[in-house]
Amino acid sequence: MTDALAVDVLLGNPDVRIIVCCGSGGVGKTTTAAALGVRAAAQGRRVVVLTIDPARRLAQAMGLPELDNVPRRVADVGADGGSLDAMMLDMKRTFDDVVIAAASPDKAKQILENPFYAALSSSFAGTQEYMAMEKLGQLHAEAEKTGSYDLIVVDTPPSRSALDFLDAPKRLSSFLDGRLIRFLAAPARGPLKLLSSGMGFVTSALTKVLGAQVLTDVQTFMSALDTTFGGFRERAERTYRLLQESRTAFLVVAAPEPDALREASFFVDRLRRDAMPLAGLVLNRVALPLAPALSAERSLSAAESLEESGQHPEAAAVLRLHGERMRLAAREHRLADRFASAHPGVPVARVPALPSDVHDLAGLRDIGDRLAS
């Protein structure tokens, strides 16, 4: 039998300073992260929840008018000195802050005003995940310095793959360190003279493909970024090492569906391979029938008899609904058992499916209760 995930023990452990909620998109990571933050604050922790969810459900649920790159205090949450702040990653602003901190004022101005930088910082694949790592590093450094927080809860980006969060720093570094980009970053004698007159044919070809102005923007950006690039890689590696420490705990969040559990399985394997601390699995939206003693077969058979007789249509509808729910629960149970067989020893917290979305603090507290029960 799979062990139950001791959520309150995890939240109450002062040595755990970072909880990362990860998994594929649409499985309830944002709600889980928010509910964990609310429950941890009630236990006396000073918590900040960092979400990267573009839908603004978290702000609404926490009673805030909006969330942005600055932590905002959530009212009426916390006990025994506990508190809860929440924020939403602003990818462009975080990238801007990194450039401003790493470069001289003149160099930063040159980068921030560059058209190629504007495109890279707002739409390049992997930038959101990379900036999530940057922001996590910033929050941790601030918490260590000022004591403002003793727990950071991270809701990872709604990526196509759950692994993008861990791979993004390496991908962005590879892009910025690629041969073509480094070639474009080489010192130029004039806007389009690359390395030497012997490379003129390369310049001419690139100009035809990219256009003269685009090529100039790329060259200018890379030349300006060259002096600050080492900081990008260093910080990414430092945050990556932080994720491997015992003060970090990963919670893999999934729904009882084949695709979501397959992603969860990949992520568990990756965490173990990279020696990252896995706390357990949160299985959201689990079907829990109210009368499990009544089997699906008996319920559906009784419903069919009532429907054929034309008597008690309401009872027939309830019996059919129960039978279908029992079948769904059995299917989900088989999927969960398959995951447990592939990953023995991973504790699981099961959260029942709710009739509606969470939209306020009371709903988040309810989710927290269900996580810990």
UniProtKB/TrEMBL annotation:
<protein>
    <submittedName>
        <fullName>ArsA family ATPase</fullName>
    </submittedName>
</protein>
<dbReference type="InterPro" id="IPR027417">
    <property type="entry name" value="P-loop_NTPase"/>
</dbReference>
<dbReference type="Pfam" id="PF02374">
    <property type="entry name" value="ArsA_ATPase"/>
</dbReference>
<dbReference type="InterPro" id="IPR025723">
    <property type="entry name" value="ArsA/GET3_ATPase-like"/>
</dbReference>
<feature type="domain" description="ArsA/GET3 Anion-transporting ATPase-like">
    <location>
        <begin position="17"/>
        <end position="288"/>
    </location>
</feature>
<dbReference type="InterPro" id="IPR016300">
    <property type="entry name" value="ATPase_ArsA/GET3"/>
</dbReference>
